[in-house]
Structures are given as structure tokens and as C-alpha cells.
Amino acid sequence: MSRSLLAFVFFASFVVPSGSAFAQNAPAIPAATYRVVYLEVAPAEVNRVAAALKDYKRSAMNAIGALRIDVLQQVGRSSHFAIYESWRDNAALEGHKTANDTKKLDEVLQATRVSPVDERLLTAVGPPLAASSGTGSVYVITHADSVPPQRDAAEKALSELTIRSRQESGNAIFLATVQPNRNNHFTIIELWKDEKALDAHAVADYTKKFRDTFGPFSGALFDERIYKSVG
Fold first, then answer.
1. The domain spanning residue 169 has which CATH number?
2. pLDDT for the residue numbered 220
């Protein structure tokens, strides 16, 4: 895990005190059907990990309940990887965490990682996403945490952004998710046709409006990372 992400996790651990009034009144969130995993490995092991991720994707796509598996490499930081997974239901997701191909990948990561594997189990908020969605070349994964009293307002803003973003011709995936165990911790997963499409989205009026709306009740750095597919 990078120093910036460690700082993010440290801060987030104090955002929702256990037993707080907010936690007691928090809305019920469905069980996770999405999974994002962040990986940081030794620079000398980049090729080995990329090959292992490709093998994992091929095997995982044959698993019962698998809808989409993407293995990604961060642009500008070649030793940082991510996995994005979409599953039919929570049972399929949980079952695959102990599958042989998952264990095989874990063995490679244990031998190559320079920080702990960071797994986020997620459920969608806002409009549902088509099972397979589309294709593109530029992935974006963003952490967006809200302060607890503004949690519902954060979800509403993300839902509105999702609707508008999916209408863009260059968008293949735009998915807002939340962690069921930390329901003010949101993750946005995006896939764009190319950099030009992403740039157009970044300067759109509704994107700027979302950031202006979300900023005052953000509970941590709006942590946006750009990736490319490794297979």
C-alpha cells in the first residue's frame, strides 16, 4: 500500500466511531457484488505479476457468477495494479475468494508485494449497471469519502453524476459503489473509450458541479487513479 493510501486508511478509521448515532441509524446496504483490489509490488516483479493477473482473469471469467473481470496497471506507476470484478450475487463473489485461481494469484502476490493487498468489497449505489457494459482503454478508480452526516447527500450527488456520465458517447462504464461495512466510503469505477473522452468528461459542467457539491462534505482526499488494462 502506498504512503498516500496508508494515510487515507488511517484517517478513514476515525471517520465513523463505533456505536455512534450515525452508525445506529445508517441505511441498510445490500451485500457486496463488486470487488476492487489494489496491489503494490516490487518494481523488479512487474512482469511476473502482470502475467499472473492475466492468468487469473482467464480463469476467473469461467467461475460461476462472474460477470466481468478486469486486471489493471496504474498509468505512471507500473508497479501498482488493481483488479475490478463484477459478480452475479454476493454468494458468487464470496465463493470465488477461496477458489484455486484466487489462491494461485495470492501465492504470487505474497512473494512479490511490498505492501498489504488492499481489498474493497462493494455494492452499487444509484442506477444499476448493465452486466457486461462496454469496452474502452482508460480506466479510472476513485475513492470518495463523505463525512457521516452528509452520507445521503453524497450518494445523491454520485447518483446524479452517474446518470449524466453514462449518457456520454465515450463512456463504457460508470459505476458508483459503497462499502457495506463503511457506508460513507464510496468508490467510483469508470471506463472510457480513450483519453479524449475522459478529458471531455472532466470539463463537463455536471462533473464540475458534482465536485463543487461533494467538496464541502468530503471526508478525505478525492483520490483518483488512472489505469490501463494488462490483459
1. 3.30.70.100
2. 72
Residues 6+ apart with CB under 8 A from 48: 108, 112
Q: Is residue 3 part of a domain?
A: no
Spatial distance between the Cα atoms of 132 and 55, rounded to a whole number of angstroms: 20
What are the residue ranges in the chain where pLDDT is below 50? 1-24
Give the range of the structural domain holding residue 35, as residue numbers without chain letter: 29-229
Q: Which regions of the chain does DSSP assign to beta strands (E)?
A: 34-40, 66-74, 80-87, 118-125, 138-145, 171-179, 182-192, 223-229
- DSSP conformation class of 169: T
User: 133 near 182, Cβ under 8 Å?
Assistant: no
pTM: 0.85
157 domain residue, yes or no: yes
Counting the structural domains of the chain, the total is 1
For the segment 73-112, what is each residue's pLDDT rounded down to a tens digit? Answer: 999 999 999 999 999 999 999 999 999 999 999 999 999 9
Closest CA to 83 of 65, 98, 62, 97: 97
* Residue carrying C-alpha cell 455536471: 206
Q: Would 22 be classed as within a structural domain?
A: no
Cell of 77: 506507476
Q: Look at residue 43 in the predicted model and tell me its pLDDT.
A: 98
Q: Rounded to whole angstroms, how far apart are CA atoms 48 and 102?
A: 16
Residue 9 lies in a domain: no
In the numeric block, the cell 469461467 is attached to 62
